[in-house]
Amino acid sequence: MTTRSEGPQRHRIARRTLLLAGAAALASRVSVAADPVVLRLGDQKGGVEALLNAAGVLHDLPYKLEISQFAAAAPLLEALNAGAVDVAWAGDAPTNFALANGTPAHIISAHRSSGAGTALLVKQDAPIHAVADLAGKQIGTGGVRSVTRWYWRRSRRMGWRSTPYR
User: Fold this and answer.
1) Backbone torsions φ then ψ of 84, nearest 5 degrees
2) Which residues pair with 88 in a beta bridge?
3) Do 48 and 92 belong together in one domain?
4) Phi and psi for 10 in degrees, rounded to 5?
5) In a domain, 35, yes or no
6) Would 155 be classed as within a structural domain?
7) Is 135 found in the same domain as 76?
8) Of 155, 77, 150, nearest to 119 (Cα)?
9) Do 16 and 84 belong together in one domain?
10) Is 156 inside any structural domain?
11) Which of 50, 61, 105, 160 lies at a CB distance of 3.0 to 4.6 Å from 155, suitable for a disulfide?
12) Are 118 and 70 members of one domain?
């Protein structure tokens, strides 16, 4: 039986699996017959690797998979730009900025996110228990990221006029 929470998760795993398979197919075209094919996957904090592991697709691969972990999309996309990774999974805002700044890449897979997988964390004893509790407060992010766009849209829907970022 599939619950509501399992359905979207299965689709995310399938999309990421498809992305990895597509990248592997591209990598196999440029391999030298005597050399093993190596696909260098850039990942953010183990998210894609965990999903691929849960889907059971990391075993008995017909190529060598090297996974490099990055703290966020910006350094991951810098590595893609520098040729240090072959494939990367990143949110819409960082990807658009990287492409606009000349990263030699193109999108081979995309999906629409409702933001349901986005989390804002506060300390356990903080007086903030919901997004509405952030009204009039300022938040900090490590740069322009997908959460920035999500939070901006959420704050506009709540009628907040000031920009809450620093």
Assistant:
1) -80, -20
2) 42
3) yes
4) -60, -40
5) yes
6) yes
7) no
8) 150
9) yes
10) yes
11) 160
12) no
Q: Any idea what the Cα angle at residue 140 is, between residues 89 and 117, rounded to 5°?
A: 40
Share of the chain above pLDDT 90, in %: 31
Interatomic CA distance for residues 136 and 104, integer angstroms = 41
Pairing of strands 38-44, 64-70: parallel
Asked if the model's pLDDT at residue 42 lies above 80, the reply is yes
Average pLDDT over residues 37-63: 92
Specify the DSSP class assigned to residue 18.
H
Model-level pTM greater than 0.90?
no
- Tally of domains within the chain: 2
- Tell me which residue has tokens 């979207």: 8
Q: Let me know whether 34 and 83 are in one domain.
A: yes
Q: pLDDT digit string (tens) for 92-151?
A: 778 888 999 999 998 888 877 666 666 777 889 989 888 888 887 777 766 656 667 777
First and final C-alpha spacing in the chain: 45
**Residues 84-87: contacts with CB under 8 Å, at least 24 apart:** 84/40, 84/42, 85/40, 85/41, 85/42, 86/23, 86/26, 86/27, 86/39, 86/40, 86/41, 87/19, 87/20, 87/23, 87/39, 87/40, 87/41, 87/42
Residue with tokens 């990367």: 88
